Protein 1
Amino acid sequence: MAGSKVTRNPSPYRPLSFHLLRLGQSVSAIIVSSVLSFFVYYLLHERYKLPWTFIFLLTAALSTIASLLVTTVLYFFRTLPPRYNLINNAALSVLWVLGLSFLTWNLGWTLGHRCLIANWKTEAGITVCRLYKSCTAFTVTGLLTTLLALLLDVTTYRTSTQLGKYNRMQGLDVKRSAPIISAPILQDEPLGSPRARDTDDLGEQKPYRVQDSIQVQHFGYSAPPEQTRYDPAHGAF
């Protein structure tokens, strides 16, 4: 049995911009989630309450990773609909905006200071300062790449819907009114006719004639009667 390979529809996205933006999203989400997981672990270990800033940012980062995994499977094995990805990136953009807003509101003072012993007293404090700044930088990167991915979804969705619009073809009535060409009707010569007696005496095959001449009028062409006359010498029309 011949193999019937199931093919997927071509993706409406431009591959370069699509994969670069998704790469930026994935790198930003992985770094932010790693830094926040480090903070969450030590806060829970010391039995501190988790701040809402970490909760929003960790939700945005983990949701981005999960979304990228699902959409990657759809992209390579099915067809990723731009409308679905648009809704997905819109929701992720809201989470990134909320997380960055809480981060800059609560830890904005950290961004204005250099990570030095004079400001943080210990090496552990310097490490925390650097982690805060790294988390903030990649939060901004994650937000920007998600917004650009959302813009790409909007433009791709508009392009795909415009290409899918139905346009009535011009001249359809002309094609419908084209005449139908019927096959010629062939029949034997009547017995006893002079032409039939002549051919019987010669022992040749009984000739045929066209009952009605073919009149073909299609695209302004009319076949002359000479083209439909039977010639016994050649055995063809």
Note: Helices lie at 15-45, 52-77, 82-111, 117-120, 123-163, 172-176, 194-201.
Protein 2
Amino acid sequence: MEFGRISNLALRGLQFLWTLLIIALVGNMIHDANGGNPSIINYCMFAAVFAMLSLIYLIAGSISEGLSGHPLGMVIVDAINTLLFFCGAIALSAQLRVHSCGRSSYVDTNSITRGSNNNTKRCHEAQAVCAFMWFTFAAFAASLVFSGLATRGSTGVRRGGLRKGGPIMSQV
């Protein structure tokens, strides 16, 4: 295996781990909620479940190029995941306005952290989800670069220019 494929598989493993952690933390936040959840919590769960489902395709395509279908398929799915996690991480960061979870004035008034029997626990979970959203965004952005580099020359799109890839004069 070449370095690029090993690196891409390592990134896929990190994406899987962090996405699994996001699903677990957000699922626990949803379960412990007393009166519903803010929409950003539901969005984070959507982004994580979408990423987990798309990782089935992305991991298979990283192992064998024959399983990826069209060469741009992995690039498109990586781009969608990168965008979903970027938007979710920004929105969650903005709504959390991260402060100390030990301050009851912050925990009891923030729309994300209140709404549970244990608001401090919910605050810690929300901050962890925010961190893992940023980590997963970075991993998907890096794998987007790897996927983009892997598709160079295999998409069937030819670059313009004087030479079209035919034999050079010394080969004739």
Note: The chain has a mean pLDDT of 88.
Protein 3
Amino acid sequence: MVNLYEEVTTPNGHTYTQPLGLFINNEIVQASSGSHITSIDPATENIIATVQAASAEDVDKAVQAAKKALQHQSWKNLPGTQRAKLMAKFADLIEENQELLASVDAWDNGMPYSAAMAEDVPEAINTIRYFSGWADKIFGQTISTTHEKFAYTLRQPIGVVAQIIPWNYPLLMAAWKLGPALACGNTIVLKAAEQTPLSILLLGQLVKRAGFPAGVVNLINGHGREAGTALVQHPLVDKVAFTGSTATAKLIMATAARTLKNVTLESGGKSPLVVFSDADLEQAVKWSHLGIMSNSGQICTATSRILVQRVIYHSFISKFKEAVNTISVIGDQWQESTYQGPQVSKAQYDRVLSYVKMGKEEGATLAMGGEPCAIDGKGYYIKPTIFTDVEDSMRIYHEEVFGPFVVISPFDDEQEAISRANSTSYGLGASVFTNDLQRAHRVAAEIEAGMVWINSSQDCDYRIPFGGVKQSGIGRELGTESLDAYTQVKAVHVNMGLRL
């Protein structure tokens, strides 16, 4: 019999029991095959734990459980106010276990523990709490037509939702998906990223403790090529919500199209950050640094293309380098001083270094970094990388790298800035720095992106919609817009006297 649990101790001293199986029907169960996923600490390259990977058969069990829960009166007939209470309890339990969950995510992902405590877990808590408040405020409308007809609409859950999350903020990305789906009364099968399989199983235990009926939330690990594919193409899945690469999003969309599933896709980005000469330069530099170097550059909206008006270009570069040297302290997850931890995996580490090599070959100037910097000979660490003298045709300018890797390029006027900001297949986020209010709004309207920050970068909020245009995705998460993504409208026509 394969062990379903293992006692482990995090490097910062939390001893706990790590589930190793699949969370289906409110229980940790054994996978049907011998496939597994090994979690590696990216700072030390040591094995943390090995969890079981779902097969297509396991995915079917999870989907069947979700379908049964969707139709069971314990969930189907549960008033929205009671759903809200379950969600609020769930948020409370995450908060009670915040230090442990932050420790596991930091260990598994490589993000600094301080960042996990300040960002990943608190924002997950806030997101669940926010959507708990919406659970009893989702309703249709009455529509006036004639005196012989009474018409109204119902907003109902879409049904069984498949959710696939990335590895860069494991708990937060889970909350972004779970929050609106639960508030709207759906049932869920969520697959975690292969690189970060641990915290999602702890979350499952909190789902059960919160009192959710069995089968409402099912959480699995699995390889994308098997479990992910089986989940997306399952005939009982009504919607797919995915966050990850554009290449994978295209495959998911093609697969979902075979059964016309509803989809929400949040995919890649190569977000521009435009700095005009009248901007507060100190603030522009600080926000620009945060926009690309936080979380080791592993952010889908990372402002990885910085366009600076030519008259301040060299001054900006000089100050940006100073910010990197001062702020981007590289270290393991557990040091208070650490700003940048390792890349999440060897594959991601190799990917970033391959783009450094590519940038040199394309003729750009490597102005800073671009080198491995192992600690005691271990870890997937890379020095913050800055390229200048970058042409728009270069791959490092228009392809997503997903690391501490930025290109900085000059522009002359507003129209050029807009044109070059838009010269990419992506359209997720963008930032504009200027003290000219009219220009700020004008440029924000012209940039092809789902989100534009004016005089900031990356300060997302669970109350504000999040999503992209072009090849950065379809649909929106967060805010009230995400409630639309997890409900469907039914029109009811009542004959009040029309006779044939």
Note: The chain has a mean pLDDT of 97.
Protein 4
Amino acid sequence: MGSWLSKQVEPTSAHYTYLILSIFLLSYSFFSEFIRNRLHLSEPPLALLTGVIFGPNALNIINPASWHWQDTVTQEAARIIVSLQVFSVGVELPKAYFSRHWKSVGMMLVPVMTFSWLVTAGFVYGIMGTTWSVALIISACLAPTDPVLAAAVLQPGTRFSSRVPRRLRHMLSAESGTNDGTSFPFLYAGLLMHGGTSTGAIIRDWFTGTILWQCTLGILVGLILGHYANRSLRIAERRDWIDPSSFLAFYILLALLSVGIGSTLGLDDFLVAVGAGTGFAWDGWFANKTKATHLPQILDLLLNSSMFVYFGAIIPWKNFVPRDITPMITPGKLTGLLVLVLLFRRIPAVLALKPLIPDIRTYREALFCGHFGPMGLGGLFLVIEARARLETGESIPMPHPPKHHPNLEAIEQVWPIVCFVLMGSTIVHGCSVAAISLGGHMMRNKEERAPLLAAEDEGLEGMIHEGGGGESEPSVSGDED
């Protein structure tokens, strides 16, 4: 009987993964209201911890290495998921948002992000003992705000999101949707410097290849694609060519088309995707048609949470200790770097530039926006892109990190440092809502506290909440006014 049963049962690592992942997602779904609005936790840190616990360094049940997956799988999975998320940002923003709030978003993208890049590079260079070019590469992977983590906290429907003014939620969403793409100039600046070519050649290649081709053309292609997709879908709906299920599927398929066009032409995938989403939903028509479906939230739960479980399972724990090739990498130095990055990567710049950012109206708001710059799956894609360029000189990485290579030291430094900071940011920023809510509850007088712990629903103190309920944007995507 035992031998017969053993022939029927197939407990492979992949099959265990299906089982554990589905149980995690079902369990979260059952208690999602309690977890989000009572515990004030989001999916990413819980998914990450699930991957760590069941991963190869703990219970060894989810082991991606046993599936013979290569680095290209991680790269492409992160590309698709982040692109879907930034496309979603473009669709869900208020109609014609960038025409009214370009200055606020621009300040967050250019001076704040440049500050983040240079300050983080300084910390990496000083603490981890890398070369300056490698420090710039690492800091470029950590400069953008992750749209997946941002959406997990800022998406409508949670108690906490209703306590933050809409103008701040929209600005942070717009920033997170665009700065994954605008991180490419920073990344390629570091890569070109590491290549050792002349200054003139670096500037020429950076401007023509990165700024003009990848970024400028990428956003233009995305906007044109989204605009004409909107017009085509309107015609199809008006003439009853398309059924309701295909109407919804159009959203995902257009996002995938933007990724396909961007990656095939060598453009900035993320800028193509956010441009397509923005052009597609510029007038708010599509969002108005689909606002009751909660499609972005469904995608968040299924795809983003799954990717964070995967990330938790591939975290390179053995690379967080000193090795012959990376003697300067130690758990203490990585922890110190993480703390400095979380404290000084954005907060000083946002506080200093607060008078120049119209959507930030108080210093408490500036502190919140400065802190709320999570790093996650966007950084995972960028670090694989960086490794690929260091390994092959192209955007396609080797199947696995090489054992012998002229850039071996840089390759071995980039991967563990970025992964450690991404892991720490996912946990810290994923738990920030709980800390803010609990802190606000405890600081109130007893008679002013909500009956349940951290269950207040008034706007956060020190922020300007026009219109009640934290609303300040009169015309969101899908609204008629």
Note: DSSP finds 20 helices and no strands in the chain.
